[in-house]
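Q: What structure does this chain adopt?
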Amino acid sequence: MAEVTRREPGQFCWPELATTDQPAAKAFYTSIFGWTTEDMPIGLGATYTMLKLRGLEVGAIYEQGKEEAGRDVPPHWNVYVSVVSADETAARARQLGAKVAAEPFDVTDAGRMAVVQDPSGASVCLWQGRRHMGARIVDEPGAMCWCELATTDPAPAPTSAASRS
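A:
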């Protein structure tokens, strides 16, 4: 069992699915990976579904917002990187040529996040964990084990050292 009890800055720490059909996605992924779910209301009739393996969080699913759907953004997985400070890392990413797509903000008492787009246009979420550190199980069947950037222009893409703020 690869249970995680703490995170180092620069580690991938959380996957979440933004989907246009949350009930269908829950049914699909739970049947494939054996996950259980815990629905958490997040306001305005929306629900954030925690995905669990052996009772520990491994990821989440949420209904994609109308603003993304209005821009024809397809359903997608978001990946989060653990950082010491979402504010400082977002500022550093901007200095290195990134676009800050979502300025740092608090996610209740769970943590603080931001979304940045590297110079090649790829997005990654920054996570400054507080109550929620991220996935509690990794590197085993049914849990996150690999994240990579697929790009047509690797030259401007950042190295992992840039995410260690």
